[in-house]
Amino acid sequence: MSPELFIQYLFAGITYGIIYAIVAIGFNIIYNTTGIINFAQGEFVMLGGMIVITMHAFMPMPLAIAAAVLITMLVGALIEMIFIRWLESPSVLRMIIITIGISILAREVALHIWGESVRTLPYFIGNEVTSVAILGARISPQVLWVIGVCSLMVAGLSLFFKFTSLGREMRACSANRRAATLCGINTKNMVTLSFMLSAGIGAMAGCVMSPITYSEYDMGPGLAIKGFTVAILGGLGNSLAAVAAGLLLGIIEAFSISVLPLAFKDAIATTILLLILFIRPHGLFGSSEAASLKEF
Amino acid sequence: MNLLKRYIPVLVLLAVVVGIQLVTQVTETTFYLTQLTMSAYYSVVVIGLCVLMGYGGQISLGHAGFFAIGGYLAGALTTHNLLPYKNNGMVIFFNEVGLLVAGKNLYGGSMLTFEPWAACIIAVLTAGLIAFAIGGPVLKLKGHYLAMATLGFGIIIFRVVLASAYFGEADGISEVPGFSLFPGIEVSGSFRARTLNYYIAWGMLICGVILLLNLIHSRVGRALRSIHGAEEAANAMGVNTARYKLYIFVLSAVFAAFAGVFITHYNGGIGPSEAGVMKSVRYVAIVAVGGMANLWGALIMGIVLNFLSLRGIFGSYDDAVFGLILIVIMLFAPQGILKINLWQKLKTFFALFAKKQDSGEPAEG
Question: pTM of the prediction?
Fold first, then answer.
């Protein structure tokens, strides 16, 4: 493999990897405040991409993206308020089935609104063939957009959770819900907020990735399973580790295409998921001591 | 007495099955039998999954995978011509043992393929072995992890089927020959064999129901329910939880594989959509609607929903309907719609009524 080709694959891997990381962080945010794995996480990315493409027909790109992110956040909040807020300590099995149902409904609604066709947003800068030379490899500027925007989101989120009082309240919720309630935090609103937040970052990722990866009504489940793989790889609930794990998975996938047929690309992520679940369910970076207190 | 109580519903089911066939015969609507036959096969998967989910408490989002393993292997083995490899040692061995059968393809060329019986056994054994192999590590997981692991397994099977030329890639396998169970009794989509196949499918379903009914009323069934209730407690009481979970997982996989084999011969083919994640979710949805730990509920819902779906009642909203069913049932009636407590509500209503009368009587007397 020539060095240029290596860098080409590496960038492809990083691009996908950071998208997986964003989906994984979406999982983590909701998991941390509720203990629920939201199987409809991939649908947020799909909705973001689809809405921005529709909006772009009426308004300039930045406005369209803002609108798409806001609408998807609203959808996230509505989902939480309609389906989850009023349930009294539901069983895990029940929550799994409900979120799977939500993901199916979201997909079917998208199918009936936008149809089966694959859509795409125009490139932010230039077009399909514009490229920047980096270390001898030709990289599309959109790839840099994806990497840049996603990195900014990750940085912004960690600052938000660390330094704002809202972020700290959400963290308190995930540490101990009852104690948080006793401190006067409205935990129910925090759950709604976590759904909005993860819907928002999912939609944002869906917007910036649309020109490269295209948007389709059924892109959700594939992204969700990879995002979950990444979340598990990093250790569920740990968002910074999710970034590392996402890059790892993206790069493994990108290089695997050079060896294996493309059709097996999705099978690789799922195989990694199964292996990690069997061998280290607490993740690559999680401590096994803490894991022995958890249930898998 | 107890036994009688257990088998009365089976006898009723038998009567209904025969009744439906006679009615369609008289009203000349025998075309319904085709969908009823397929519904029966899909319901075999559903009842197997019901025992795993409802009684054992283990979710599986990968049962379409086992169904596909059964169907695809049966289809591939009985359609792929082995003549070009007839000098291969394995093929010679298979031929001598009598596993292979010579025939003709559509264009009159001679073929050497696996005998459907042999293919069926290989397919079901493979599904069982795969379930056994992955069941060990998978069933150690709980909750979300178990759901994701089984979902991952389903996706892998789907991808493998879609990517392998041997399994026909996106086209699936077609021209699968009939499966002659006994001389004169053949599982096939032939127009004349419609009534016969209706009875084969329902016979299989009823055998499955009887087997599972006995299972859940046995030591194994009680062990499974104890696992569902509290796994640690069951373990402490000396129930080998890991073994029972694996046992029921393999059994439900075998049920799914059998259904896959038969439906492939019945339809004369199988496509990758049968292995799709949506199919697995659909099986889970049906079990949930039936009320999880309710074999008869799962069976009835399996027949009704599959029949409606196969008749195309839901049109292009087919998947949406199943998604909606899942949400509504889980939100409002997690015990299933057959146990929506109408009876209980009526009873409390009448109890209130009786109480009023009770308190009224002394005043009168």
Answer: 0.85
